[in-house]
Amino acid sequence: MKLQKQKPRQTLNPAFRRQRPSRTEINSFKSNLLTLIGKVDETESEEHVKNLVRDFLRDTYYKNINEVNTKGRQDLAIYTGKTNESKVGVIIEAKRPINKGEWFKGDNANCKAIQELVLYYLRERITHKNIDIKYLIATNIYEWCIIEASYFDNLFAKDKDFVKQFQEFENKQKVSTDTFLFYNDIAKPFIENSADVIPCAYFDIREYDKALRNNDKKEDTNLISLVKILSPSHLLRVELADDSNSLKESFYKELLHIIGLEERKEGGKYIIDRKKEGQRNEGSLIENTINILDTEDPLHKIPDLSLYGTTREERLYNIALELCITWINRILFLKLLEGQLQNYHQKDPEYLFLNSEIIPNYDELHKLFHQVLAKTLKERTAAITEKYKRVPYLNSSLFDISKLEDQTIKINSLDNSFNLELISSTVLKENKKKNQGLKALDYLFRFLNAFDFSSEGGEEIQEDENRTLINASVLGKVFEKINGYKDGSIFTPGFITMYMCRQAIRAAVVQKFKDKHQWKVESIKDLRNFLKDRRSTKEILEDNALINSLHLCDPAVGSGHFLVSSLNEIIAIKSELGLFADKTGDTLSDYQIVIAQDELIVTDRSGNDFKYEIKNGKPLSNEMQRLQKALFNEKQTIIENCLFGVDINPNSVKICGLRLWIELLKNAYYKDDTNFQELETLPNIDINIKCNNSLISRFALDADLSKALKSIKYNVEAYRGFVNDYKNEKSREVKRGLEKIIDGIKSDFRTEINKNDPKNTRLRKISGDLFNLLNQTKMFELEPKEKKIFKEKKEKLEEAINKLANEIKEIENNAAFKNAF
């Protein structure tokens, strides 16, 4: 048996590796580790050593949380609970630093330290039936070897002959009960004859002496992996405190306050609604918007007001909410963009633009939306170009004036003069101390700046412990809740979307290859073996195209969580199959792409997280540029061709589009052909997300569409061509033209298919029957019995006509259906 030594960071959970430790955690670790090293006396006993290790672990991580103490003959154990009555989670064997004879040499695991861990593990696993052991640790204070318990389970606990010998030894059935017999005559020969290679995290704290004793905070980043690998999150697999989808309550509640909403419990469920009268502030976004809508009274411009409620108050609120969600969507997208630019450019303050100094009022915010983000660099005026020279053009239809804005008001109509009082739990503590209200827009910017939007995490230290990381998943959950204000929304947890997408998509990919090649494959692992010989550029492009032919539709898409999980899963599958490649079909095999905590994580062969950076006006390397482009292009291809969503709520459709744009934004790259001055633009992916009621179909599933297709001006291929043109069109004028063509084709198709719609056909027949009944010539007065039959027929036909007419009207008037096909 050999040990495969790995650096600590290589063995950490990828999601945990990206979490930032706080400055307090780093300082505590350094202080306690220096204390540990300072107390080392190599002449002291092993008992002295294990006491030092216990104190270090307890004081740094486990005090008042987990018991760290001996158990029987075990030197140390970290228990899963606060007392030694709980189960052992980690077994530790401590050796004196000078005891070289019992320590492993090189990669050879056959030493007493490991043999003792084997005995203690089997006592826990076999004798005490403990299935909660996570790790085994051997340490001589300086050197640490951390082995995942599952390797011991597979090698030792599942070997029947070895377990039999262990049990005979425990039952005193051997020639001696001395542990020397177990170590020398049972464990040693077994380990010697085993060809297994067991990975282990290995480090020597003497190699980190400079970082430990240096006052330069930059050196502390070298300690991050050590801080994490001995923590409960790793050794006991305690649930990560910063799940990518965990809701940040402070962020959520204060954002609601700024918008003018609140969460409250009604009828056993939590709903989000407008603040109650007496608690409303006219400076909040929604109250400001309602006041302007009420004053300017543009509601008559909306074609179907019934979509927004029955009373004027209800309509004003729902229209204002939709407008506010549109505006907040844009602002949060820009906040993530600002954080991304900061990441790319080593925190250069020149790339900060979302603050009150640059955007002092709603008029300037309107300019940012529509004169900066909605226009190419060449289209911008000289003044705009100078002021916003660091803000890229992205071609996102998120910054086109929406239909509702066109019919009602835009954000520059809002009143800038109102102050908004701070929520009692505000993150802006200094302003709260001064009892200082703020202009609403200034409040929003200061609030957002109190959180960290700069990345999805990384090997950095969180210097300001109050700046919580906010990522796209958290925003999705926030808006899912806001959007479900009427009946309490349910945000599907990440572990559920991950599991469902993994099971469904992997099975679908395997089936695709089975159908095409008639291979006998049942899993991705089987498929990987078949694909290892298909490595020509042509074959790689063909195999990618086959996976890209998948079509996934979420019929109640909400914030787009399932679509994002599907996107991540498809890319991870391509990486696992060796198919992740650039546009030319050249694979990027030096990188591993996995999903952890519902996040896509890209690492190189050394386990280093991939990070795209610009220095001196260009990416740090050509390979970095190639990988970033490949990630962007893969995401764009999958989003455009594979992912579709439907939701009855128009706000959900907007939020879902935003989430998909954000996923692309994560891998936006500076284009080579602009000398790395311009970011690659985002496609118009909103066309894939439809506002619709997926429970209602206008046409039968088996309806014959061939006649309708022959009768309209364009065929399906032409329609698809227009849709593809729309997705990548940058000109607003051309986009509007394409929208008209696409809407015209859909309208023609609906008209043609309507002629053969079974409901309409039956309605025409029944109407004809009624007409004939009412207009038939009567030569004689009807007898009472005949009058009764006539009346019953008439009423039956009228009832059938009314029922069919209402069904057809319900479908036609369904707001969601207007965007169908």
Would you spell out the secondary-structure blueprint of this structure?
Blueprint: E1 2-6, H1 8-11, H2 14-17, H3 23-38, H4 46-62, E2 68-71, E3 74-79, E4 88-94, H5 112-127, E5 135-139, E6 143-148, H6 149-157, H7 160-170, H8 179-193, E7 197-204, H9 209-213, H10 224-229, H11 232-235, H12 249-259, E8 261-266, E9 269-274, H13 285-296, H14 312-344, H15 362-373, H16 382-387, H17 403-407, E10 419-420, H18 429-433, E11 438-439, H19 440-449, H20 472-483, H21 494-517, H22 524-531, H23 537-547, E12 552-554, H24 561-576, E13 591-596, E14 599-604, E15 614-615, E16 618-619, H25 622-641, E17 643-647, H26 650-665, E18 689-691, H27 706-711, H28 716-728, H29 732-755, H30 758-775, H31 784-813
Structure at a glance:
The chain is of the alpha/beta class and 821 residues long. It is built from 31 helices and 18 strands.
Which key phrases capture this entry?
31 helices; single chain; 3-stranded parallel beta sheet; 821 residues; alpha/beta; globular
**Mean of all residue-level pLDDT scores:** 86
- For the termini, the CA-CA separation is 62 Å
Total number of strands: 18
Question: What percent of the residues sit in helical stretches (DSSP H or I)?
Answer: 40-55%
Q: Enumerate the strands of the largest sheet in spatial order, edge to edge or round the barrel.
A: 1-7-6-5-4-3-2
Q: Give unreliable regions as ranges.
A: 814-821
How would you explain this protein's 3D organization?
With 821 residues, the chain is of the alpha/beta class. It has 31 helices and 18 strands. 49% of the residues lie in helices and 10% in strands. Strands 1-7-6-5-4-3-2 form a seven-stranded mixed β-sheet, sandwiched between helices. The C terminus is likely disordered.
